[in-house]
Design a protein that fits this description.
The chain has 4 helices and 16 strands. The structure holds flavin-adenine dinucleotide and FE2/S2 (inorganic) cluster (FES).
Length: 246
């Protein structure tokens, strides 16, 4: 983990209530897919955790949905403003288990962490299928970006206004070797039940410190308690206990 001052170079609305922000610093290292950053905002005691959407040395991008005080403050920020950010947080996805035909399943703001993953998997010659789920057409983003990487992409919307009507689990393809997923907990539970292979889940649990000190994000797993911010946010399918079992 590093505490860094990053400069905003882009902050653009890309869908209804969804924004993409690019942050830069010469000292910034490349982040791993599935890792997150934690952003200090004026007047808020707790930093706000946001997944890394894209990353290269010196630059990272995030995609965030405006849901409250912190993210509303973020969408008013202009290029040139500096932010205090903790970088390099979380374990990230393990790419070694992907097999030849990995499946990526993202729901809403669970889609962003899958982009850098798709980028690195396609660069390794994997045939990636991405199923991106949203509530409605106005909230859809990322479809083109995944396509440009060479992924096969299916979009689902709960109301049927774009793509397949339903949830990501209504558009599962056959013949995938492994899966990676991120999204709201009801979606993750449905993916857990519907998938036929092993896979990795990224959890967007409520967090306190975000770097392992407060135990606020601790969850019971098959292998004992894990801090989602430190030993997660990515857990393997086989180690997950859902809330009622914890
Ligand atoms: C590891 C991790 C990665 C994340 N990645 C992203 C991302 O890439 N893009 C993105 O838009 N969001 C992401 N989130 C969620 C994001 O952190 C919250 O939406 C944000 O902190 C809300 O801050 P706020 O001040 O705007 O809202 P608040 O005023 O704090 O809350 C507004 C509403 O949002 C709900 N809320 C707040 N935090 C969460 C949360 N973690 N999970 C579910 N509901 C929440 C609250 O219950 C409340 O109803 C991630 C969270 C975690 C833990
Ligand atoms: S949020 Fe503090 S330990 Fe995870």
């Amino acid at each position: 983990m590093k505490q860094q001052i990053l400069k905003i170079t882009e902050n653009t609305r890309i869908a209804e209530n969804v924004w993409k922000m690019t942050l830069e610093s010469p000292e910034l290292e490349e982040q791993k897919p599935g890792q997150f950053v934690n952003i200090r905002l004026d007047g808020l005691y707790l930093r706000r955790p946001i997944s890394v959407y894209d990353s290269e040395p010196g630059r990272l991008a995030i995609i965030y949905k405006t849901v409250g005080k912190g993210t509303e403050q973020m969408n008013r920020m202009c290029a040139g403003k500096q932010l205090d950010v903790l970088t390099g947080l979380g374990n990230g996805y393990d790419l070694k288990k992907a097999g030849d035909r990995p499946l990526l399943l993202g729901g809403g703001v669970g889609v962003p962490p899958l982009y850098l993953l798709a980028k690195q998997l396609t660069a390794r010659g994997k045939q990636v299928t991405a199923v991106l789920g949203f509530n409605t057409k106005a909230e859809v983003f990322g479809e083109e970006a995944f396509r440009e990487l060479g992924c096969r992409v299916t979009v689902t919307t709960a109301d049927g206004s774009l793509g397949t009507k339903g949830f990501v689990t209504d558009a599962l393809p056959d013949g995938y070797s492994y899966f990676y997923t991120c999204g709201p907990e009801p979606m993750l539970k449905a993916v857990y039940r519907a998938t036929k292979t092993s896979g990795q889940f990224s959890f967007e649990e409520r967090m306190g410190c975000g770097f392992g000190a407060c135990m606020g994000c601790s969850c019971r797993t098959v292998t004992g308690y894990k801090r989602i911010c430190r030993e997660g946010p990515v857990l393997e399918k086989e180690e997950i206990l859902w809330a009622k079992d914890r």
